[in-house]
Protein 1
Amino acid sequence: MEYVSTRGSNKVDFVEAIHLGLAHDGGLLVPNVFPNLQQRMLETAHLPLPDFANVVLQPFVESSALEASLEHICQHAFSFPVRTKKLSDSLTVLELFHGPTLSFKDVGARFLAQCLSQIKEPRCILVATSGDTGSAVASAFSNLQNTNVVILYPKGKISPRQQAQITCWGKNILALGVNGVFDDCQRLVKQAFTDQAIKEQYHLTTANSINIGRLLPQMTYFAHQASLYFLATGTPINYIIPSGNLGHVTACCYAKQLGAPIAQVTVATNENRTFPEYLHTGRYFPKATVKTLANAMDVGAPSNFERLSHHFPSHADVLAHVSAFAVSDDQIKQAIIGAYREHGYLLCPHTATAYHVAHKLQPNEQCLVATAHPAKFEDVIEALIDEPVPVPAHLQRLLDKFQQVHEVEPTLAAILDVMTQYW
Ligand SMILES: *Cc1c(COP(=O)(O)O)cnc(C)c1O
């Protein structure tokens, strides 16, 4: 498999693609073909997810140095369960939050970490986070040989538990609270990656969802669940995906392109409505980020839009495959209360956007993608349901650890300065 830039240049293999993060021309790397795997998916859907992932991802690492390690990588990356819960005849939840830091981002982060550790070259991972990426990446890379990790998060704009899960690691993990918003963090990462001298001096690699090594493994659970559903019912599945940076949505569209039996892909955003407005008007206007209850989706300029519009070159193509709805904080609150009252089920604020949208799309049967565990967002949920949210034991262990908090100004110079002092 070769990877090309959304802006035209580059033809690289998988290993080079994950090292580069961003293409030389500033574009995002994308697979240049999507083989049809439908038959193979249906034949192997009965296998556990790590084995199924090994089948689906095989063409994507073909003729790279990691081809022979894929099985090992999948076994270590997909090391926790993905579960489904049926809430009603028309509503199923795909729970992607049973990993070490309780969000779906554990999948991509652990896959990328396993890939990089198999390559065995010293790297510095630089990553911007709006909440959950940071903890997933920190956990995935903690104590891995030959890797240092720098995490930029918008200080004061993530939940206390998210912050605890980013700042509790120490050693090869440096967490920096940036005085700014998520878009500042993301801009700083992009800036570092477009500066060739800095990139080479620090051996920089990114673990953001702009890294194709994080995105590709996310195709697998969409494809797995869709195949199982198709074998059981004879119909393709509809997904509703809570979305910010559009990474998860892109992965789902890729899975569909591979032949996974997926019907509608519906995007649920919070008040950051850049993407729904694009679908509505045909014009793409990135905006300043708005702070919402679903903070891991607080993104005004979704970077994976460039991948999605490379995949679907015209507005009509996008519209034919994806629909999108924006959900307000008030609707998020009502969804959390409603799901608890009707089904005794706790939703995180991100998953709540999808739950709200599902009720718009009735009576069609929908599979909601649950992106984070409610215990990560107890501050929002407990105020609404007036009951404590139970804390899973592995979260409690992280929360009990010592937190190392560093604050930096939103400039690349300030960040490089702290890095040099720390290691
Ligand atoms: C990152 C994240 C999202 C958004 O995912 P994208 O791939 O950026 O669209 C949604 N929910 C949670 C809990 C997240 O951490």
Protein 2
Amino acid sequence: MTFRQARWDEPSIWDLAPSTPGEPAPAIPGLPERMRRRERLHWPELSELAVLRHYTRLSQMNFGIETSSYALGSCTMKYNPRVSEVLARRKGAGELHPNQPESTAQGALELLWRLERLLTKVTGLPEVSLQPAAGAHGEYAALLMVRAYFRDRGELERRTEVLLPDTAHGTNPASATMAGFSTREIPSKDGCVDLESLKSAVSDRTACFMLTNPNTAGLFESNILEIAETVHRAGGMLYYDGANLNAILGITHPGRMGFDVAHLNLHKTFATPHGGGGPGAGVLAAGEKLGPYLPVPRVVKNGRKFRLDYDRPKSIGKIKTAYGNFGLDLRAYVFAISHGEAGLQHVARRAVLNSNYLGLRLGRFLPRPFSTLVKHEFLLSGTPLKARGVRTLDLAKRLLDEGVHAPTIYFPSLVDEAIMVELPETESKRDLDEYAAAFERAVTDTPERLRAAPQHLAVKRVDEVRAARDPTLCWKDLRQRTGNAEKGPPAPAAP
Ligand SMILES: *Cc1c(COP(=O)(O)O)cnc(C)c1O
């Protein structure tokens, strides 16, 4: 299979046609004058066909789950079933307004209520809030709940520390710091939490221990009950980062493992679209201690009626407009009920089988730091490539030339030159075999070609440091930087 990505010399839409100022915004009865847009919007003058071609060409210079396998470890890049997309666009869902009367949104509220019930079963925790918009948002909200809990107990002054394993996702320490805690790293032993180190680190300063299980090395923390007991004995809370839930869906759950609070990434495990920063759904589930602190509103059922309940005195309050990302909640619900309980178990089993199968195949080319059975994802180390003057980054770029997406690289940091691979249950054996073949071609290529990759993509290597530090995210930014004042919309009015 030879891959050549489409490459169009496609200009920006503003360069395709002169822009003309549109009509001034009309006066809308009841809308205060100060809220009316004063400047005129500029639109490129293009035919419908020209616009269609422009965006179709751009889409051909892209990569997505609908093009090929997307092995980004930890991210669970699975197929988003079309039936969910169709349902999410129906009038009653797609045109729902957060301010419409509850009596006209009973179906939507019932769906949220049913999803909450379903997620209590999935997590084994009795209370659920669908508010957070991403995993990191859920983490942050949960840590605010932990703060509120200890404030109520008069322990907040003392409990200032959040403990994290060295395999933790970067969002965990970031959320803890943003929520006002200091962080402390617990070392791993053979890829899992070192229990002795944890025991000596917990104290009456411990507010919380954040853990994902299976962890980011793809290993199940089989000491989890002892971990829970250790943290609880010190009076701390145990937080479940549910991004890796796919591997245990319907088989076990955070409640059974002793966790007090969990976030689930519906956009990973429950097959809703994600990437590029959103939208997501990082819903929260909590046990009895932290349940009262969950964000409002909560959906409640009174007789046959559903309503939103804001009357939760201990709640940390509202953390998101409306009630969460309804469109994603709907897709997740459709995914869950169309699989059913047995189907969700099958998802987990199949995802774990995929991981082990591909792990064995790729393990022929690069060493696996933990060569046991894995869950969810597996790690390779690119260290041997260094001797040939090749970096893990080069291999990742070379894989793109094979038409597949690269794995996650340089994470977790406890493995040198880490390569983290995950192809979830939606990938067939044929897809896995093709991925392994692509990996073999890439890893055995010459150092020169590896360092020069990618050759067949519309965009070659980008300056990643500059992209992160100095992003140009829209036309207005670009125009300001290049001083090109002729084209495009007028510069934003000074505030
Ligand atoms: C993806 C991920 C997160 C963060 O979720 P976002 O929705 O991207 O904010 C946290 N932990 C782990 C292990 C993850 O894989």
